[in-house]
Design goal:
This protein is α/β, with parallel strands linked by helices. Helices cover about 50% and strands about 15% of the residues. It is built from nine helices and eight strands. The chain has a five-stranded parallel beta sheet with strand order 2-6-1-7-8. Strands 3-4-5 form a three-stranded antiparallel beta sheet, covered by helices on one side.
Amino acid sequence: MTETAVLTIDGPVSSGKGTVARRVAAGLGWHLLDSGALYRVLGYYARNQGVALDDEAALVPLAKALPVRFVESQGDTAVILDGEDVSNIIRQESVGELASQVAVLQPVRDALLARQQAFAESPGLVADGRDMGTVVFTAAPLKIYLTASAEERARRRFEQLKEKGFGATLATLVEDIRTRDDRDMNREVAPLRPADDAVVIDSTTLSVDDVVNRILDEAAARQLV
Protein backbone atom coordinates (compact mmCIF):
# COMPACT_ATOMS: atom_id res chain seq x y z
CA MET A 1 0.00 0.00 0.00
CA THR A 2 1.30 3.44 -0.93
CA GLU A 3 2.08 5.73 1.99
CA THR A 4 0.62 8.71 0.15
CA ALA A 5 -2.78 8.56 -1.52
CA VAL A 6 -2.45 8.34 -5.30
CA LEU A 7 -5.15 8.71 -7.93
CA THR A 8 -4.09 7.49 -11.37
CA ILE A 9 -5.56 8.58 -14.69
CA ASP A 10 -4.50 6.48 -17.67
CA GLY A 11 -5.77 6.42 -21.21
CA PRO A 12 -4.89 6.79 -24.89
CA VAL A 13 -3.44 9.86 -26.57
CA SER A 14 -5.64 12.98 -26.58
CA SER A 15 -8.27 11.47 -24.30
CA GLY A 16 -8.19 14.59 -22.13
CA LYS A 17 -6.08 13.10 -19.34
CA GLY A 18 -3.91 16.18 -18.90
CA THR A 19 -6.74 18.67 -18.59
CA VAL A 20 -8.77 16.40 -16.35
CA ALA A 21 -5.79 15.47 -14.16
CA ARG A 22 -4.90 19.13 -13.64
CA ARG A 23 -8.47 19.99 -12.66
CA VAL A 24 -8.79 16.99 -10.33
CA ALA A 25 -5.45 17.78 -8.66
CA ALA A 26 -6.57 21.37 -8.12
CA GLY A 27 -9.92 20.19 -6.75
CA LEU A 28 -8.24 17.86 -4.26
CA GLY A 29 -5.34 20.17 -3.46
CA TRP A 30 -2.91 17.41 -4.48
CA HIS A 31 0.33 17.30 -6.47
CA LEU A 32 0.29 16.47 -10.18
CA LEU A 33 2.47 14.14 -12.26
CA ASP A 34 2.30 14.41 -16.05
CA SER A 35 4.30 11.27 -16.82
CA GLY A 36 3.88 11.71 -20.57
CA ALA A 37 5.85 14.94 -20.33
CA LEU A 38 8.85 12.98 -19.04
CA TYR A 39 8.87 10.76 -22.12
CA ARG A 40 8.31 13.73 -24.41
CA VAL A 41 11.19 15.61 -22.78
CA LEU A 42 13.44 12.57 -23.04
CA GLY A 43 12.65 12.03 -26.72
CA TYR A 44 13.18 15.71 -27.48
CA TYR A 45 16.40 15.88 -25.45
CA ALA A 46 17.77 12.69 -27.00
CA ARG A 47 17.15 13.98 -30.52
CA ASN A 48 18.86 17.28 -29.69
CA GLN A 49 21.81 15.40 -28.20
CA GLY A 50 22.15 13.28 -31.33
CA VAL A 51 21.16 10.07 -29.50
CA ALA A 52 19.30 7.47 -31.56
CA LEU A 53 15.85 6.72 -30.15
CA ASP A 54 16.53 2.97 -30.18
CA ASP A 55 19.94 3.21 -28.50
CA GLU A 56 19.10 1.85 -25.05
CA ALA A 57 22.69 2.06 -23.80
CA ALA A 58 22.76 5.81 -24.44
CA LEU A 59 19.14 6.57 -23.51
CA VAL A 60 19.22 5.04 -20.02
CA PRO A 61 21.89 7.36 -18.54
CA LEU A 62 20.21 10.24 -20.35
CA ALA A 63 16.90 9.35 -18.65
CA LYS A 64 18.50 9.03 -15.21
CA ALA A 65 20.20 12.41 -15.45
CA LEU A 66 17.50 14.23 -17.41
CA PRO A 67 17.87 17.93 -16.44
CA VAL A 68 14.15 18.61 -16.20
CA ARG A 69 12.05 20.44 -13.60
CA PHE A 70 8.29 20.86 -13.32
CA VAL A 71 7.28 24.23 -11.95
CA GLU A 72 3.67 24.62 -10.81
CA SER A 73 2.27 28.15 -11.06
CA GLN A 74 -1.26 29.54 -11.21
CA GLY A 75 -2.89 26.22 -11.98
CA ASP A 76 -0.47 25.31 -14.75
CA THR A 77 2.80 23.41 -14.92
CA ALA A 78 5.87 24.72 -16.75
CA VAL A 79 8.34 22.13 -18.04
CA ILE A 80 11.91 23.41 -17.72
CA LEU A 81 14.60 21.44 -19.58
CA ASP A 82 18.18 22.46 -18.89
CA GLY A 83 16.99 25.96 -18.00
CA GLU A 84 14.70 26.34 -21.04
CA ASP A 85 10.90 26.41 -20.89
CA VAL A 86 9.86 23.66 -23.33
CA SER A 87 6.23 23.45 -22.20
CA ASN A 88 4.85 24.25 -25.67
CA ILE A 89 7.57 22.60 -27.76
CA ILE A 90 7.04 19.16 -26.23
CA ARG A 91 3.32 19.26 -27.05
CA GLN A 92 3.97 19.22 -30.78
CA GLU A 93 2.86 16.06 -32.61
CA SER A 94 6.42 15.39 -33.79
CA VAL A 95 7.67 15.29 -30.19
CA GLY A 96 4.80 12.97 -29.27
CA GLU A 97 6.16 10.56 -31.86
CA LEU A 98 9.62 10.74 -30.28
CA ALA A 99 8.08 9.97 -26.88
CA SER A 100 6.21 6.98 -28.29
CA GLN A 101 9.46 5.55 -29.65
CA VAL A 102 11.50 5.79 -26.44
CA ALA A 103 8.55 4.58 -24.33
CA VAL A 104 8.66 1.08 -25.84
CA LEU A 105 12.11 0.43 -24.33
CA GLN A 106 11.94 -1.37 -20.97
CA PRO A 107 15.35 -0.13 -19.68
CA VAL A 108 14.23 3.45 -20.36
CA ARG A 109 10.95 2.90 -18.51
CA ASP A 110 12.88 1.36 -15.61
CA ALA A 111 15.17 4.39 -15.51
CA LEU A 112 12.19 6.73 -15.18
CA LEU A 113 10.17 4.56 -12.76
CA ALA A 114 11.72 5.73 -9.47
CA ARG A 115 11.64 9.30 -10.70
CA GLN A 116 7.88 9.06 -11.25
CA GLN A 117 7.20 7.32 -7.94
CA ALA A 118 9.07 10.09 -6.11
CA PHE A 119 6.28 12.50 -7.07
CA ALA A 120 3.99 10.81 -4.52
CA GLU A 121 4.11 13.30 -1.66
CA SER A 122 1.59 14.41 0.96
CA PRO A 123 -1.25 15.25 0.83
CA GLY A 124 -1.65 13.17 -2.34
CA LEU A 125 -0.82 12.77 -6.03
CA VAL A 126 -2.82 12.71 -9.25
CA ALA A 127 -0.72 10.78 -11.77
CA ASP A 128 -1.55 11.06 -15.46
CA GLY A 129 -0.12 8.71 -18.07
CA ARG A 130 -0.33 5.38 -19.88
CA ASP A 131 0.72 2.92 -17.16
CA MET A 132 0.26 4.79 -13.90
CA GLY A 133 -2.28 2.29 -12.55
CA THR A 134 -0.86 -0.84 -14.15
CA VAL A 135 2.87 -0.37 -13.46
CA VAL A 136 3.95 2.76 -11.59
CA PHE A 137 1.34 3.00 -8.80
CA THR A 138 -0.25 -0.44 -8.67
CA ALA A 139 -1.49 0.08 -5.09
CA ALA A 140 -3.32 3.34 -5.86
CA PRO A 141 -6.74 3.32 -4.15
CA LEU A 142 -8.42 4.93 -7.18
CA LYS A 143 -7.52 4.24 -10.80
CA ILE A 144 -9.25 5.90 -13.72
CA TYR A 145 -9.03 4.85 -17.37
CA LEU A 146 -10.17 7.74 -19.54
CA THR A 147 -10.97 7.14 -23.19
CA ALA A 148 -12.99 8.53 -26.13
CA SER A 149 -13.50 7.71 -29.80
CA ALA A 150 -10.54 8.32 -32.14
CA GLU A 151 -12.59 10.89 -34.05
CA GLU A 152 -13.46 12.88 -30.91
CA ARG A 153 -9.88 12.75 -29.67
CA ALA A 154 -8.64 13.99 -33.06
CA ARG A 155 -11.14 16.86 -32.96
CA ARG A 156 -9.97 17.89 -29.49
CA ARG A 157 -6.33 17.65 -30.52
CA PHE A 158 -7.04 19.72 -33.63
CA GLU A 159 -8.53 22.49 -31.49
CA GLN A 160 -5.59 22.39 -29.08
CA LEU A 161 -3.03 22.65 -31.87
CA LYS A 162 -4.95 25.46 -33.56
CA GLU A 163 -4.99 27.45 -30.30
CA LYS A 164 -1.22 27.03 -29.99
CA GLY A 165 -0.65 28.10 -33.59
CA PHE A 166 0.38 24.67 -34.89
CA GLY A 167 -0.94 23.43 -38.21
CA ALA A 168 -2.64 20.05 -38.69
CA THR A 169 -5.48 18.43 -40.61
CA LEU A 170 -8.26 16.50 -38.92
CA ALA A 171 -7.90 13.47 -41.19
CA THR A 172 -4.17 13.24 -40.49
CA LEU A 173 -4.76 13.50 -36.75
CA VAL A 174 -7.33 10.67 -36.82
CA GLU A 175 -4.84 8.44 -38.62
CA ASP A 176 -2.00 9.44 -36.28
CA ILE A 177 -4.13 8.69 -33.21
CA ARG A 178 -5.13 5.26 -34.52
CA THR A 179 -1.48 4.49 -35.25
CA ARG A 180 -0.44 5.60 -31.75
CA ASP A 181 -3.26 3.57 -30.19
CA ASP A 182 -2.15 0.45 -32.05
CA ARG A 183 1.47 0.96 -31.03
CA ASP A 184 0.65 1.74 -27.38
CA MET A 185 -1.87 -1.08 -26.93
CA ASN A 186 0.16 -3.79 -28.65
CA ARG A 187 3.69 -3.05 -27.49
CA GLU A 188 5.44 -5.72 -25.46
CA VAL A 189 6.50 -3.31 -22.73
CA ALA A 190 3.72 -1.94 -20.46
CA PRO A 191 0.95 -2.04 -23.08
CA LEU A 192 -1.81 0.50 -22.67
CA ARG A 193 -4.82 -1.06 -20.95
CA PRO A 194 -7.15 -0.36 -18.04
CA ALA A 195 -5.98 -1.70 -14.69
CA ASP A 196 -8.13 -4.62 -13.53
CA ASP A 197 -9.64 -2.41 -10.82
CA ALA A 198 -9.89 0.79 -12.87
CA VAL A 199 -13.02 2.88 -13.29
CA VAL A 200 -13.41 3.24 -17.07
CA ILE A 201 -14.85 6.56 -18.27
CA ASP A 202 -15.72 7.11 -21.94
CA SER A 203 -15.69 10.88 -22.38
CA THR A 204 -16.79 10.98 -26.04
CA THR A 205 -20.05 12.71 -25.16
CA LEU A 206 -19.01 14.18 -21.79
CA SER A 207 -17.72 17.64 -20.93
CA VAL A 208 -14.54 18.18 -18.93
CA ASP A 209 -16.70 19.21 -15.96
CA ASP A 210 -18.69 15.96 -16.24
CA VAL A 211 -15.52 13.88 -16.12
CA VAL A 212 -13.88 15.87 -13.32
CA ASN A 213 -17.00 15.71 -11.16
CA ARG A 214 -17.32 11.96 -11.75
CA ILE A 215 -13.73 11.42 -10.59
CA LEU A 216 -14.09 13.69 -7.57
CA ASP A 217 -17.24 11.77 -6.62
CA GLU A 218 -15.30 8.49 -6.88
CA ALA A 219 -12.54 9.94 -4.68
CA ALA A 220 -15.08 11.02 -2.08
CA ALA A 221 -16.76 7.59 -2.15
CA ARG A 222 -13.38 6.02 -1.34
CA GLN A 223 -12.85 8.57 1.45
CA LEU A 224 -9.70 9.94 -0.17
CA VAL A 225 -10.80 13.46 0.71
